[in-house]
Amino acid sequence: MTLIGLSLGYTVTVMTRLPWWTLFLVAAAWIGVGLKLRWGQPANARYRKMWPWSLVPLSLWGVYVYLADSFGIVDLGAVFFHLQAGIAKHGGAGKMISAVLYTLIMIGVLAAVTWLSRHDQRWRLAERFFAIILLASNPLLYGISQRSAAIVTDDGAWLDRRYKPPPAEELRDAPNLLILYLESIERTYSNDIFGDAYASLNALGERGAVFEGVRQMDNTGWTMAGMIASQCGVPLMPAGLLHDSQFEPLSKVVPGVDCLGDILAAQGYQLSYLGGASTQFAGKGLFYRGHQFDTVKGREDLEPLLENPEYVNSWGLYDDTLYDITADEIRHLDSQNSGPWGVISLNLAGHAPNGYPSQSCVERQGEFDGQDILYSVECATWLAQDLVERLDSEGLLDNTLVVILSDHLTMRVSVWDQLTALDRDNTLIMLGNDIEPQRIRRDATMLDVFPTILDALGFSLERDRAGLGTSLFSNNRTLVEAHGIEVLNERLREETALQHRLWEGISPQRRESDEPSQEVTQEQTLETPADAADEVELIH
């Protein structure tokens, strides 16, 4: 009874904003009711050897609570994608230990429920209904059932019809491009309740365009999804059953759409990706190499360059050494004078749950307690500002568009309750010769970052759109402004055509005999005035 009570109390604290100590109140109430009703020791006990119906539903709830406790928000798309893209060389050793602990506790809970059901006929009768309630209430199964419903949906091409291929024009006087992805450093940290954690990015933002209101829609809430949304203008819909070889890792990542790398490579850009973590994790290497980056380097490539090989964390390089290597790469590309360059860097300092602050930050900020994510956020933002200022002082950012953004909203961290009580949005800051200092408040998503970057580089976009996004410098409405994020998420759960587009080339090809009927179906699909509302310009 104690084990079940503590587990129930812990589940309540994970699923709500109640403080951790309330788990003991829940456990005490549970144990009190159990003692009062003599659970496991009824007056007329009749032992029966049986296996409870609720064992499987309880196990599934255990999986969900583990995911919710580890990441804050459970994203099934992330689970499915990582299973196919690969999770080699990850730095989540602590998560593995936590998973083992969860497993042992769940085994104990299942054993306790089995014992009670065998020794108490009241439990034998009640647990069958309990099993139904557990299945019906599990958000994990709810998400799976919603995605499965897409197979029989009336319109599985709502998003695909709104997809706008990116421009293929020749760009004149192409500027260089530097993109700094700051792991989990969302703009919400700029709120005063978090002190000076975001102050360095606020200082950088005064020199350029700061975008507010870049929200997180479904299938854009983890690193690869955030990068694909902001570089391809599409949510990352996992290949799932579309993948030809279900038991083989992915060979390509979203090969069916042209992304930023494809567009810039056609313009003669020299492209480099540098990340502190391994490129083998979650298909990062596959994505960048498959979309025409010349240099793709992660932990396995950069670690041998370190003066101190032991100066790494469980995920990879600390930000100060990563940024030193990034600066060297930019110097090298700039010295070649062989056309414009594009460099993308992904840091690690803000990675949940506690972050990985660099030694240079410890020297500046004092000792790190190992828990406070705001310490790590301050470290990440300060090092990003320092890199930009170093490069600027060397003249390496002349005729260069600098984009600083978060890859996604953070997962569960030490200030999770404060973050989730606010309206959260992603970081997006752009600096450049032709970008006036300004603050732009738009209801947008990471999908809109893609056309905004293209617009800032000088591309002419049809109706200011590319992919599913709209340039935030324009007056045209974003999909969120036209329809609302709830509608987008609902449509995404029903979408099948866009998923086929993303994975074209590695998904089973549709039979030719199916094509005429499919075309007829699409011709018969009529859009309502609300569907077409995203074509209307904003009125200021």
Automatic annotation (TrEMBL):
<dbReference type="GO" id="GO:0005886">
    <property type="term" value="C:plasma membrane"/>
</dbReference>
<feature type="transmembrane region" description="Helical">
    <location>
        <begin position="96"/>
        <end position="117"/>
    </location>
</feature>
<feature type="transmembrane region" description="Helical">
    <location>
        <begin position="129"/>
        <end position="145"/>
    </location>
</feature>
<dbReference type="InterPro" id="IPR050448">
    <property type="entry name" value="OpgB/LTA_synthase_biosynth"/>
</dbReference>
<protein>
    <submittedName>
        <fullName>Phosphoglycerol transferase I</fullName>
        <ecNumber>2.7.8.20</ecNumber>
    </submittedName>
</protein>
<feature type="compositionally biased region" description="Basic and acidic residues">
    <location>
        <begin position="504"/>
        <end position="514"/>
    </location>
</feature>
<dbReference type="Pfam" id="PF00884">
    <property type="entry name" value="Sulfatase"/>
</dbReference>
<feature type="transmembrane region" description="Helical">
    <location>
        <begin position="20"/>
        <end position="37"/>
    </location>
</feature>
<dbReference type="GO" id="GO:0008960">
    <property type="term" value="F:phosphatidylglycerol-membrane-oligosaccharide glycerophosphotransferase activity"/>
</dbReference>
<keyword id="KW-0808">Transferase</keyword>
<keyword id="KW-1133">Transmembrane helix</keyword>
<keyword id="KW-0812">Transmembrane</keyword>
<feature type="compositionally biased region" description="Polar residues">
    <location>
        <begin position="518"/>
        <end position="527"/>
    </location>
</feature>
<dbReference type="InterPro" id="IPR017850">
    <property type="entry name" value="Alkaline_phosphatase_core_sf"/>
</dbReference>
<feature type="transmembrane region" description="Helical">
    <location>
        <begin position="58"/>
        <end position="84"/>
    </location>
</feature>
<keyword id="KW-1003">Cell membrane</keyword>
<keyword id="KW-0472">Membrane</keyword>
<dbReference type="InterPro" id="IPR000917">
    <property type="entry name" value="Sulfatase_N"/>
</dbReference>
<feature type="region of interest" description="Disordered">
    <location>
        <begin position="504"/>
        <end position="540"/>
    </location>
</feature>
